[in-house]
Specification:
alpha+beta, three-stranded antiparallel β-sheet, 3 strands, flat
Length: 93
């Protein structure tokens, strides 16, 4: 976060009790115009490499992966063979 082009903070802390008390997260705060400008430039460069994600894309995230685990298709299983019971001997001897 950059404020007024002069004060910046960077880190992992969220403003909640868990972040402060349990997760041992921290931020670094700097009062320096040059560093704040550099951070703004880094953020602008990140935005250029970003793409907009619609709510529908965000809402569907992970569903395809989860579905492939729960309901594997024949094409996902080809070449893997059938699962074999391990029995009592884990080393196959």
């Amino acid at each position: 976060m950059i404020v007024d082009g002069v004060w910046a903070t960077i880190g992992s802390t969220n403003f909640d009790n868990r972040s402060f008390a349990l997760n041992e997260e921290l931020n670094v705060a700097v009062y320096d115009r040059k560093i704040a400008r550099q951070l703004e430039q880094i953020f602008a460069a990140d935005l250029k490499r970003s793409r907009k994600v619609s709510y529908e894309e965000w809402d569907a995230r992970g569903r395809n992966f989860l579905s492939s685990l729960l309901f594997p298709s024949r094409s996902n299983c080809e070449g893997r063979g059938s699962p074999q019971p391990m029995g009592d001997n884990l080393h196959g001897s």
